[in-house]
Design brief:
The protein is an alpha/beta fold. The protein has helices at 2-23, 27-33, 35-56, 85-93, 112-118, 128-143, 168-175, 189-192, 223-247; strands at residues 60-64, 76-79, 98-103, 122-124, 147-149, 181-187, 205-210.
């Protein structure tokens, strides 16, 4: 595993530079005609990059609940978070245009942060002013028919189990109450690379399950009840997937 991980990261660095060379010089020319088209181009290259990283690790997918996901619609996409490979998985499973919501620290990562900015992704900054700006940015994307991908748990799960969601998800859901929330269970990325490790385990299969979309305003009760709803349906389906796959 150590040798494979070393080779994988070496190839990943080279592959990232290749994508950089293919993407960034073209951006300014497209930007002359359309800022959105330029951002979409970088997003398309990011998807190409993410899918390539999955293929380099020989990862396959099993998708369930496809009937719950209409690629033509705009969603507040809310997957669980187990590993850095969740991000690459999102590039593989989500269609149309979408924007990631991530911590502002990722914006400082060389090449990656620059690419995220050009793709018009959203950085969440600490503090009242930063939080309001982030919500404004999310609303802007959703109103322009761009889905956003936000991890309600806030950070990766060390154990793989679903963590309770943060209250921030309710802020944008309240602001854009007409946009459906799409819960997405991702199982298996932790088996590829656990949180806070760099060991890669190839030839794994990721199982993705799209749950039924809902609106937080349809959930009775206070904010805690609304958050409990997301947590309960995610936990239930995650546990069912886990039990089913372990028995195989």
């Amino acid at each position: 595993m150590i040798l494979f991980s070393f080779i994988y990261f070496l190839l990943a660095i080279i592959y990232t530079f290749i994508c950089f060379i293919l993407a960034y010089p073209v951006y300014p020319f497209i930007r002359i005609f359309s800022k959105r088209a330029a951002s979409n181009y970088i997003h398309s290259m990011a998807k190409f990059w993410g899918r390539g990283l999955m293929k380099m690790a020989f990862i396959s997918f099993n998708i369930e609940g496809k009937e719950n996901y209409d690629p033509k619609k705009t969603y507040l996409l809310t997957p669980n978070h187990q590993s850095a490979f969740d991000i690459f998985a999102c590039f593989s499973i989500f269609k149309k245009s979408f924007a990631f919501v991530s911590k502002d620290t990722y914006g400082k990562v060389p090449l990656i942060g620059f690419g995220m900015s050009l793709a018009n992704y959203i950085f969440v900054k600490r503090g009242t002013v930063g939080a309001v700006k982030s919500i404004d940015d999310m609303e802007n994307r959703l109103r322009n028919n761009i889905s956003i991908v936000i991890y309600p748990e806030g950070t990766r799960s060390d154990t793989g189990e679903i963590k309770r969601p943060k209250r921030g998800i309710l802020k944008i859901a309240e602001r854009c109450s007409d946009i459906p929330v799409l819960p997405v269970v991702i199982y298996g990325t932790r088996d590829i690379m656990k949180a806070r490790t760099i060991t890669i385990r190839p030839f794994k299969k990721i199982t993705v399950k799209f749950l039924e979309p809902f609106y937080f305003h349809d959930i009775e009760g206070d904010d805690n009840a609304k958050l409990d709803y997301w947590y309960s349906i995610m936990t239930k389906n995650y546990t069912e997937l886990k039990d089913k796959l372990i028995k195989r």
